[in-house]
Amino acid sequence: MSTPADALSCAAVLFDLDGVLVESGSTVERSWRAWAVDHGLDADAVVAACHGRPSAETIAAVAPHLDAAAEAAALELLQAADTSELVACPGAAEILAALPPTRHAVVTSGTRPLATARLTSVLLPVPAVLIAAGEVPRGKPAPDGYLAAAARLGFAPESCVVVEDARPGVLAARAAGCRVIGIDGPLLGDPSDVDILVPDLAAVAATVGTGSIALTRRSETHV
């Protein structure tokens, strides 16, 4: 799609968590760098691989000799306790407040305790539908999480819009049949793969109608 859209109509909005609703990049990278050093791994390579997919999958890829499930559980416990630098992403609180609880969900590559800790630490609501790592057979870039979220909300995935900031998540959304709003940044990959490109959620206006939600890129937004 060479020409980005300015508006999308949908039944529900499915949000990624980190980098979309909660700015956790420094926390994520700090914990992964420390983990890499502890295990004698290339920290830069580990950080490059960690974004947008479940921790256990990253560990299995970069350190197949380790017990990925056990390492991931320990790592995410540390991340859940490290909330001092977390902030809500611009526009996150406003768009969540505008959407009915039955019309949005969060799909994250982190565990449920980690997702809950991050949302509550920045005073964002924990949604009624939250699909976390380990709750679907495959993590991103497989479509399982977004398919599960759409089903839990009661909508076809083709009627949902996903908001993502990382390439694995965009691939997952596309594989599920969803349209995509991309948060511009170094993790997104090819911006032509998304329907609307914005710097953050503050650039998206959400208008809820009787049967649909209109998501519009604000006219003053430039990316």
TrEMBL record:
InterPro entries assigned: HAD-like_sf, HAD-like_SPP, HAD-SF_hydro_IA, HAD_sf, PGP-like_dom2
Entry-linked SUPFAM superfamilies: HAD-like (SSF56784)
UniProt keyword Repeat present: no
Keywords carried by this UniProt record: Hydrolase
Molecular function in Gene Ontology: sugar-phosphatase activity
EC numbers: 3.1.3.23
PANTHER family according to UniProt: FRUCTOSE-1-PHOSPHATE PHOSPHATASE, GLYCEROL-1-PHOSPHATE PHOSPHOHYDROLASE 1-RELATED
Name this polypeptide is given: Sugar-phosphatase
Highest classification ranks of the organism: Bacteria, Bacillati, Actinomycetota, Actinomycetes, Pseudonocardiales
